[in-house]
Design goal:
This protein has 11 helices and 2 strands. By secondary structure, it is mainly α. Strands 1-2 form a two-stranded antiparallel sheet. A hairpin with a 2-residue loop joins strand 1 and strand 2. Helix 4 crosses helix 6 and helix 6 packs across helix 8.
């Protein structure tokens, strides 16, 4: 239905609504195409942060002390149980003073998206790391490998596929994230595609509605590509995933 509506115009069917994505309307500070490029950039940054933070946290959860691992596992999973709006509001009131005054920084949106993506990375990576046979680590240690090299030579080759899957989920979640972003300061350089879509749908007008449908189809296509990439990479991940 979205695809049909995005192609529908007064004269029949055409790609006019898609070409209009490059035009700025008075409703938006930038064009929908710029908003889409912002979403892709923020998703890439958020994915990188989610992979680094989620990967390091997963190592601590698997190899750390019992109380430390349990506390970190619970703390990093909390964003899954909290509303994204709550995360956005919390960042708005917490990151407002130096040295962590990020309200005027372009990093605020990627950080918010990374908070939502980290639990997905951990939920995939932690079971994968726990499934690694301890005898492999012991054999590497007997041969003189340091703990860091054991993780690089034993854990990483086994867990890299799960890490890529977690990155795919973090990217897919970030590209369509609306709740936390809607609560953060809205400067022109932070407008994302979901926010632009919300504004276009909230304003009467057939041209704006057609542009919103076209933008929705593009977002749907990007998300579908991310999911297909996840399915292609996933394969037989250790740990039952």
């Amino acid at each position: 239905v979205l695809l049909e509506r995005s192609l529908s115009t007064h004269g029949g069917y055409s790609f006019r609504n898609y070409s209009a994505l490059a035009d700025r309307v008075d409703l938006l500070p930038v064009s929908s195409l710029v908003a889409l490029s912002n979403s892709l950039l923020f998703a890439a940054l958020a994915t990188g942060m989610a992979v680094v933070v989620g990967g390091l946290a997963s190592v601590v959860v698997v190899h750390g002390r019992h109380w430390t691992s349990r506390l970190l596992d619970l703390g990093m999973t909390l964003p899954l149980g909290a509303s994204a709006v709550t995360l956005g509001f919390g960042m708005l009131i917490a990151l407002d003073e130096p040295p962590l005054d990020l309200r005027s920084s372009r990093w605020l949106v990627p950080v918010a998206h990374a908070l939502v993506g980290v639990p997905f990375v951990m939920r995939i990576l932690v079971p994968t790391l726990r499934s690694v046979d301890a005898r492999l680590r012991e054999a590497a240690a007997v041969l003189g490998a340091s703990p860091t090299r054991v993780r690089m030579e034993v854990d990483l080759p086994i867990a890299w596929r799960g890490l890529l899957v977690g990155a795919g989920f973090a990217f897919a979640v970030s590209i369509g994230e609306f709740g936390a972003t809607s609560f953060l300061p809205r400067s022109p350089d932070r407008l994302t595609a979901p926010l632009a879509l919300f504004r276009l749908l909230g304003t009467p007008g057939e041209a704006l509605r057609g542009q919103a449908m076209a933008l929705a189809v593009v977002l749907m296509g990007i998300t579908a590509c991310a999911v297909l990439a996840i399915e292609r990479v996933r394969g037989p991940i250790r740990g039952g995933l």
